[in-house]
């Protein structure tokens, strides 16, 4: 019954979605990056870790369109494989931070008694700079792919929680939520069907911003050497190791850098577009 | 003077306004003709979507230029406003034409004093110095009869009640001695007693200034009270225009007849012992059949709802709001008790306390033998089957993302009354019961009109087969014709299911039709309670009398009988900390009719 009731607005909002240019461009860029990452073994011309001392630090050419690094590895292939890790991290972060953020935010917004303790906790977490908190968490847990995802997920949870809390506070006072209470619906049902369903838009938009931030943060963590271990290329580690050769072989940094720039740009465009799209619709529907 | 008497202040000729839509330009008002002479009030009346506000906005050229297009002529003292430049229009708005709007609460800037805001308009439009402007602001505040104007000049808007703010707005509109005043639903957001005061004030000011007034309203009672001539609009067309007495006495258009037939009027009950249905109006002919009296409540039944010494108080830093204080009443199955009073009197809070949407501070509430006031959340959930609530705003009380079929089925599924398989059938049944079609179950709330949405809310409320329904201003936000239909639906359902209604409303005319008994609330207390006929025919408390006499009568022949203005701020139920409410005593006037005795 719930899915049936959702399908109509979904179809119409998808149609509206692609009328928005920002969303269209963002989606195309992201689709290209995603497809390349998923199909890396077929798309990449070389193995990502294949050494070739003869070809070290070659400038971009037809054989190596992004050039090669100090060990002669093909940067194009490495960038494609790196996308897998970078996107995996971002996706993991988004899931963890959204789940945590929604639970904390809805609890704080809906139950008056929980508001003060949860809000203070969130304030405390947000008083640390993002990267510092993430480094501290990774240091405590030991660096690995899982801990990076976990640490960043926890770091970004307060951002979502705040947005969700604010929206829940507004929703809680709306007559249709009161009506649901007056009808004697169980609290979990009020929260899922009436509160969460109407929070979908702000959560979606905020999540795209976290997605972009997580990608940059993972790069920063890798760059600082507390990220994912170095035998798996990520855009961040590629940047970090390219630093030494910046003057002679700038392509070592330029291409992974561009990959980050474009992915983040795509996500920001998506987030911006979604926000523009969501506002008038909310005004129209409520 | 003689010259202006000959030429109308405003003359709108063949005005057609179109809005740009995805399919091209679409006319929203067509061929409107209206003239306003000096010293005359012309009312534009119609239901929502009739185009009355668009007419006013077109006249002031306040519609967005790219998306709206006006054709025809709008002559202000002979000058065509449609040909005027934007700079010229700026001096017209707030200069030759003054405006007042519906929402006095949001049209004043909260961070400047009242005097400052009035003076600002004077400095801007009349080139006065600040000192002179302040003196003039004081004079204007005295003209709109704001008590203690001199000291109130330096106060901020939040210290002014709705009625006083509307007076300030009128003072600002009058600042530049306009020739024409456009008033767009100026009293709709106000209580009846305040409305009576504002209408009285407008009439006096109009006489003094010899202004033309274009008065936009949906309320035929207000029209009868203020308008010399009336223009009736329906879906963008002018259906009838003429002198107000003629429109009321001999309406020509079918729509006008239907509109007049559906207005709730005071004093139409005769000696009926029970509520009386509103007349069923045939939209094709505009003829009305008189409403049938519903079956009376059988006597001697145990009450379904018993409220005793209920109090709801909210603590604030500066004191305590005694929203509800020492309220007691009971309600029998099949009976309607109306809670009436003005905004802030505690009638909604009482209803919400009975539903346990707010927690009572003291007293007991017994619904069907169970104490609601002290129930745990688990017990409360089960009890919620017995009592249901219908809310005022049909646009906000339905979740926009859930289909209405799903919304109606939801409470029944949650209480385990039906299985998912039976849901569809039961929803179809309920939709038909409230006059909608079963096929509508798959639609979302935004696809329905206000009246239809309220029917959906009613279907959802009766889905659990409750015994008590708290209807909080359930028909107040609806257009007149829809209001009559939805009220009739409520009466029919009451007869079929022996529902008890706690009917919370500020609309005395609807209350008279709908209720068996009436309780009048003032500042959180019941000042008078008794059978409907006793309250309306023999009101004992001064406030009850004031409330009844403030209701505008939709009959131009009885104009000017509204109660004389009091010009006083309604007291607030905010009391200092540690305030102990005085013990109240009630005097029995006739069987079941109690009135609060004045404090010694």
Automatic annotation (TrEMBL), chain A:
<feature type="transmembrane region" description="Helical">
    <location>
        <begin position="249"/>
        <end position="271"/>
    </location>
</feature>
<feature type="transmembrane region" description="Helical">
    <location>
        <begin position="85"/>
        <end position="111"/>
    </location>
</feature>
<dbReference type="Pfam" id="PF12911">
    <property type="entry name" value="OppC_N"/>
</dbReference>
<feature type="transmembrane region" description="Helical">
    <location>
        <begin position="174"/>
        <end position="191"/>
    </location>
</feature>
<feature type="transmembrane region" description="Helical">
    <location>
        <begin position="131"/>
        <end position="154"/>
    </location>
</feature>
<feature type="transmembrane region" description="Helical">
    <location>
        <begin position="203"/>
        <end position="229"/>
    </location>
</feature>
<dbReference type="InterPro" id="IPR025966">
    <property type="entry name" value="OppC_N"/>
</dbReference>
<keyword id="KW-1133">Transmembrane helix</keyword>
<dbReference type="InterPro" id="IPR050366">
    <property type="entry name" value="BP-dependent_transpt_permease"/>
</dbReference>
<feature type="domain" description="ABC transmembrane type-1">
    <location>
        <begin position="87"/>
        <end position="271"/>
    </location>
</feature>
<protein>
    <submittedName>
        <fullName>Peptide ABC transporter permease</fullName>
    </submittedName>
</protein>
<dbReference type="InterPro" id="IPR000515">
    <property type="entry name" value="MetI-like"/>
</dbReference>
<dbReference type="InterPro" id="IPR035906">
    <property type="entry name" value="MetI-like_sf"/>
</dbReference>
<keyword id="KW-0813">Transport</keyword>
<comment type="similarity">
    <text>Belongs to the binding-protein-dependent transport system permease family.</text>
</comment>
<feature type="transmembrane region" description="Helical">
    <location>
        <begin position="22"/>
        <end position="44"/>
    </location>
</feature>
<keyword id="KW-1003">Cell membrane</keyword>
<keyword id="KW-0812">Transmembrane</keyword>
<dbReference type="Pfam" id="PF00528">
    <property type="entry name" value="BPD_transp_1"/>
</dbReference>
<keyword id="KW-0472">Membrane</keyword>
TrEMBL record, chain B:
<feature type="domain" description="ABC transporter">
    <location>
        <begin position="10"/>
        <end position="260"/>
    </location>
</feature>
<dbReference type="Pfam" id="PF08352">
    <property type="entry name" value="oligo_HPY"/>
</dbReference>
<dbReference type="InterPro" id="IPR027417">
    <property type="entry name" value="P-loop_NTPase"/>
</dbReference>
<keyword id="KW-0067">ATP-binding</keyword>
<dbReference type="InterPro" id="IPR013563">
    <property type="entry name" value="Oligopep_ABC_C"/>
</dbReference>
<dbReference type="InterPro" id="IPR050388">
    <property type="entry name" value="ABC_Ni/Peptide_Import"/>
</dbReference>
<keyword id="KW-0813">Transport</keyword>
<comment type="similarity">
    <text>Belongs to the ABC transporter superfamily.</text>
</comment>
<dbReference type="Pfam" id="PF00005">
    <property type="entry name" value="ABC_tran"/>
</dbReference>
<keyword id="KW-0547">Nucleotide-binding</keyword>
<feature type="region of interest" description="Disordered">
    <location>
        <begin position="558"/>
        <end position="586"/>
    </location>
</feature>
<protein>
    <submittedName>
        <fullName>ABC transporter permease</fullName>
    </submittedName>
</protein>
<feature type="domain" description="ABC transporter">
    <location>
        <begin position="305"/>
        <end position="548"/>
    </location>
</feature>
<keyword id="KW-1003">Cell membrane</keyword>
<keyword id="KW-0472">Membrane</keyword>
<dbReference type="InterPro" id="IPR003439">
    <property type="entry name" value="ABC_transporter-like_ATP-bd"/>
</dbReference>
<dbReference type="InterPro" id="IPR003593">
    <property type="entry name" value="AAA+_ATPase"/>
</dbReference>
<dbReference type="InterPro" id="IPR017871">
    <property type="entry name" value="ABC_transporter-like_CS"/>
</dbReference>
